[in-house]
Backbone:
């Protein structure tokens, strides 16, 4: 197989999971702008997700968020997904929207609130059993807003205890992905603020606990690809929540704010052996002002373009320049791949997969946007508010 | 008058305006945690604000937010305030919560939306006429989320046009305070992102247009006191929105995150001749998890403490050390004032004003929290969502 | 002329000034790593600059730094430049390396130090008269390290006075470019920290005073293209110091850290009518670990690539999508241009100019690096230390 | 013992190590401003350090930096220290100032350079044997400036290998303190950029490897006290390099930029059981423009004040408020301690130790500054340049 053939083969296997909640309404603390045609049920979210897969061929699974996607019959929901050509993916927990969680969930000073939170996490594993999901993604909004508000260290003890209980409940083929976040919604201390904290907890828990990197959850200036390389080296990278940001956790479309950074991240994934099913590629975004389905299509395409460029890096030439200490040549090899316009290559890949080479245009032509705008009237549009 | 007497006299004149919306519920995009006893009407907000003034003696006015505080009879609302011992203050506009404003208000690409936004601003001046308010505070959520989304420069032209129309409508004793903000809710470009932009617009508008500094609206690391000193030097500092932050626009209690910074800001205010009614001291905060009325009392006290320390700086000694180029001595003079525990001094000031020396304790003893929790049941608690 | 022909015509006119000091040694506070073949005289720096122009065709002028490039006979230096195919450009002042400047230069508390600094600036205008340079670029290291160290506002007064004296000395065709910088070498306050400060001073001085944007001199997260658009709108953008950064003022090669940002900046330049000789494109970089001449060639090429992409933006399509409020389409138009591989286009442009299409390779083949490494032995290599 | 007596007893035991290099000249990449009376030898640095201890009673040890403090006879140097009333402390390595280290030291692509760097580290352990020092402090300037320049992951492998060799050489009572730093002098990737990386390496090395927290080495907005609490919880906090910053690694006097942060850090130290000899308190600062000896005295005092306030926190009241979920009360307990003016308490402590209650004034009166300015003439002033 030629090198280009290998690149194309790799691209054909790429799968980016899309999140059910990104199809629903979202916004900032100032305003949620409702959009036409937004799903009202988990089923409708899955139908939208299926459209993303239909046009990209690269989004075969949908992540669920409990309780936003709570249904009576998960097996039926799984069948609904399969009927539409996709599968259910990662289960995301929610311990931040109940009134009890004002001061935290698994780190809350009161044992009863912690119990409630852990019970919810255990329920999520039950859902995983029903859906056949492999991964439980844990993001905790826990933290404090004011110095002194709570004991930073005691909260770590509580966190460790909760994680251990959930870890013990995992099945043999199930994993726990622990997400870290720099800040928000807590404004002074966050209980899992950085990769070091997530890593330290996962290390103690065991091999089924892995760190998930949300590309929007870092301090300004953080070199994310360094973290990716380090976690892969430690065997502790469980996956990504892709999105992009200019300032804080802006949750913009992946690749929209800093496409060069996304390329560098994907390069470390490829170089570190992370382009495997063990590293889950997921989106976690908010399409506050742009149309949701095409924004997600675009995001998947952005991830594909960054991946294509990463795969095109001439690694032999790079290694040679690095070994020679030739700074400009080594940087040049990387930039050659980045400067390449990979859209024709991806169009070709799509064609070979029997897809339209231009997912955005074909989605537009499909009439789906108009159809759902007309059909999804009445009921309660999905959103973050349960 | 001795120096200490002068400091006390100055402290007795200090007035910090509290914002009506800080008494209502607030939160993050993830969750608004409702609190007991939260006001349901502008009148109830004013009653809470009156309590803050009752216990601090330093919060004689309340800022209104239109439309959140829209009433049929503003004169009656003003009388309600006076009956409770306070007055109505600054009028704050809102051009970010209507569905039409998804892509902006006064900077929106469509003329009809801009018209609607400007009409709202003009309505706010009408309200000012009715309430006798001096200041119109303008904060625009306008901006874009994605590169290319709109034309950055054309948006400035639209902004200038809107401001000019509103400026022309101001009465002789009315002012326009233009607020800037680094980011949020827009995540790529913000139409008034920094003091330079606000200053340039105000300069063209004329003397009734002034810049307002929200202490939470800057890029990481920004030296805010430099901006304060510069605006005072230019005669363009109209006031402050005080709050504090560790990360972004966290809207924590003033002085809670970096009390040394608040002191340095107040020092520049004092040094630059800004401790006058021409510079409005206002709070703009969100008490997402802490009790609201005492949080605002505490914030007023924090501003008072920073002011007291700023007034205590030995400016002769400071000037001498600065002129001598004695870095350590000059820094030492400033730190001497900052290291001083001014709580006894402020307790004394309060005693001389006939107030309890400990506003937090006296508020707690007053039973107000219990009273409103019991009384304000039913109805719609106030919050950001209109 | 077809659109592509217009793009090529524009690219052929692009001129990027290179700084004499970038050919000399530089480093961090920890270490300056000397390189072989580094120039020892202003003449040798000019010879290196001439090589950059020889291979790129886009670097026809060299900026001088006084006193680093002080010579007895500037007319002779100008002839030396012309003999090598380039011209002398902007004159850069230096008021930060004399022992007297420990606490500042034009903002220093002592009048005698300020006098010395202003005299140096006036000397720089003398140099401009001799070299025929149009622009005086002013960057001040002035600031303070500790709160209280000096009076922030008094320093502004001193700055204004100094600038006014220098401004008065400018000839009819001469300009003053005032540079701002967020921090470094001052660590608490900087006397020209942001574009607002530079703008306010330039506005008072008059039309010959213009702001220069160094792309590395902003707070984290700053939207630089917004500043560019604003300054162009105000008629106050005098030029750029290009370089790139991941953290602070890293002074890396332009376009190396965030090529998408450089593209967005160049788009605002093009859109705002700034692609004219009135807006000076300059590099200001430090090649601490990479070979200097090829690093500068590469930087010029990076600016060219960003410019080419900016020129390729379909502005009609962009305006239509913006007017329609179609966020994804408008962003898509911009990204289409950015995703384009413009290297073939630039190779074509170079060919039409009689240049080798690959400046890096042709420089390597030229043997210049080996030649100067062999020839420039002995003497004092140029660097920042005078 | 009353609580206040316990606080005073604790304060009397506090020891802050001062760094030999802080007594020498330092600066930025733009300029090193030489000061009068700066030491020319390790012996003279120790004499200055002894003065800091003489006036504060809290700086009994001096850290050495190899090769800056390389001498033939370390035992003699230790005696010199003891003769002046202090002891030699931590040994700091230097793998950043040799020309060979342009592309790194222990992470360099070439094995020969790595060998040289490791040999230097082993030499430092030899020095420790001779001086009786317990701690080897490792800070690596290693990193890259450009994407692609070197392989991020391979550099981690090289780092691990080097650390393992040095760890194996440590004596039973010796420790290795691994320092992390966000950026500088490397501007794209740094090989030990954050606590997570340092922690992961130390964990694998074993109990004699501990993390050292330099308070200036974090991304903007990082909650340092969280890291302190976490490392103490993990048993992996080896010590501090105290200094303060507004922007990057400004190396200002500890407590000068954000005294509230220093207090919060010291509170976590106290709360986490870190106020023991196992956690080394060290300064690492640059006094670029202020007089060095008094700046270090001041820094020691600032650490003492933060510690005193931390010790004064009413931990029972705090725990009660935290358990009750009373955000304002809990924050209030912490702020009560912070608002306290502890200067009188520390003056008392000094008096009881037989010291002048005002170290700054007594140092000024001592005439030391004048004495060394007169005596230390000729020779080579100490500085970072070897």
Residues:
């Amino acid at each position: 197989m030629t090198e280009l053939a290998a690149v194309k083969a790799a691209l054909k296997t790429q799968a980016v999971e899309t999140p059910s909640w990104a199809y629903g309404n979202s916004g900032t603390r100032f305003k949620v702008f409702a959009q036409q045609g937004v799903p009202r049920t988990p089923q409708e979210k899955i139908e939208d997700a299926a459209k993303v897969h239909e046009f990209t061929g690269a989004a075969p699974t949908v992540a669920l968020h409990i309780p936003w996607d709570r249904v009576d019959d998960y097996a039926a929901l799984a069948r609904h997904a399969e009927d539409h050509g996709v599968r259910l993916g990662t289960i995301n927990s929610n311990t931040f929207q109940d009134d009890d969680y004002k001061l935290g969930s698994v780190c809350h000073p009161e044992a009863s609130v912690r119990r409630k939170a852990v019970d919810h996490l255990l329920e999520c594993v039950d859902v995983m059993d029903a859906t056949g999901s492999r991964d439980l993604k844990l993001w905790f909004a826990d933290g404090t807003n004011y110095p002194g508000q709570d004991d930073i260290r005691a909260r770590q003890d509580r966190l460790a205890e909760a994680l251990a209980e959930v870890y013990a409940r995992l099945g043999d083929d199930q994993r726990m992905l622990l997400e870290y976040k720099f800040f928000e919604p807590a404004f002074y201390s966050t209980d899992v603020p950085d990769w070091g904290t997530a890593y330290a907890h996962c290390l103690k828990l065991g091999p089924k606990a892995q760190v998930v990197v949300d590309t929007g959850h870092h301090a300004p200036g953080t070199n994310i690809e360094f973290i990716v390389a380090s976690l892969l080296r430690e065997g502790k990278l469980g996956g990504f929540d892709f999105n992009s940001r200019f300032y804080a956790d802006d949750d913009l479309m992946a690749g929209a704010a800093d496409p060069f950074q996304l390329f560098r991240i994907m390069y470390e994934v490829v170089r570190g052996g992370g382009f495997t099913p063990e590293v889950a590629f997921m989106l976690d975004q908010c399409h506050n002002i742009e149309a949701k389905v095409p924004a997600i299509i675009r995001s998947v395409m952005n991830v594909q373009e960054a991946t294509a460029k990463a795969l095109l890096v001439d690694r032999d030439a790079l290694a040679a320049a690095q070994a020679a200490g030739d700074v400009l040549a080594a940087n040049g090899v990387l930039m050659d791949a980045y400067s390449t316009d990979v859209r024709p290559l991806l169009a070709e890949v799509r064609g070979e997969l029997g897809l339209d080479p231009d997912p955005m245009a074909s989605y537009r032509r499909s009439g789906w946007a108009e159809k759902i705008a007309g059909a999804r009237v009445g009921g309660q549009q999905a959103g973050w508010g349960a």
Q: What stands out?
A: The radius of gyration of chain A is 21 Å. Chain A has 14 helices and ten strands. Chain A has one domain: 11-312.
